[in-house]
Amino acid sequence: MDALVHGGLQGIIVFAMTVVGLELTRADLARVLHYPAHVGLALGAQTLLLPIAGATIIVLLRPDPVVAGGLILVAAAPQATISSFYCLLARSDVALSVTLTAVSSVTALVTTPWIASLGFDLLLDGDSSRARLPVGPVMRQVVTGILLPIGAGMLIRHRAPRFAARCRVPLQRASLAALVVLLVTVMATQADAIASNLRAIVVAALVFTAMAVALGLVVARVLRCTAGETVAMVAGFPSRSLSVATLVALNVLASLEFLAFAVVFFVVQAGVLVPAMLYGRRFVPR
């Protein structure tokens, strides 16, 4: 793998996670005390049921191992920060979305490595070297690529609140630009894998998104959520961290091929959720 591409993608993710940290405070983590049932049930369902949904799709559709591996990584990843953007579009409960994302990122230290490793062992050819996903290295990637940069961003905001406030919007725009660069880079390097598996990837992405949205609605109904909280659940369940999937593919599997699914999944899902959020805002009281 080209060292420049590897280092560039690493840098993009660390930068993006640091910007995420600048948006968080200790109050966001403490807010879980105000949403104990919401956070507990939502994270439990995401952690257990989304991987089962991904496994069901793999068993039924029998996609290429590259697609299956990418789906496993996505299903095992924590909730993505893009879910808060979707909530902003819908004028829904952004605070709940931020709390779910923050807590999900912390718990990913344990959940993502074990679930992804189990998925690779059960659903891919265990004799293949590319199907081996050791737990320890995945944990290290979650810590060094996700938790430490987020913690650094939170520390910067705590120590230099004026700087954080002044640079907030420019850094958000830079982070969005970095995300676009990441997507374009992976698509360019994995163009052949994407082209040969495009139909399977799109079908799997749409089915997984539909199943995740349905799970979010069920959890919201069980918790008797308000309209704003329901939209936050609907946005959060399908939104999985592309950063975590990228780090694992880069540094543990040493291959970008498993990201062929992840990047197309992100684009397809955005095409579904953005108009859905814009439509859903009419049901959320101002």
Throw out a few tags for this protein.
globular; mainly alpha; single chain; about 290 residues; Na+/H+ antiporter like fold
Descriptive notes:
This protein is an all-alpha fold. The longest helix is centred in the C-terminal third of the chain and has 33 residues, at 191-223. It is built from 12 helices and no strands. It is globular. The chain has one domain (3-280): Na+/H+ antiporter like fold (Up-down Bundle), CATH 1.20.1530.
| H/E element sequence | HHHHHHHHHHHH
CATH class: Mainly Alpha
Helix percentage range: over 70%
Shape from CA axes? globular
Give a quick precis of the structure.
The protein is mainly alpha-helical.
Task: Furnish the topology, listing elements before pairings.
Blueprint: H1 3-22, H2 26-30, H3 36-61, H4 65-76, H5 82-90, H6 94-123, H7 135-159, H8 161-189, H9 191-223, H10 227-236, H11 242-251, H12 259-280
Helix pairs in contact: 1-7, 1-8, 1-11, 3-4, 3-6, 3-9, 4-6, 4-12, 5-6, 5-10, 5-12, 6-7, 6-10, 7-8, 7-11, 9-10, 9-12, 11-12
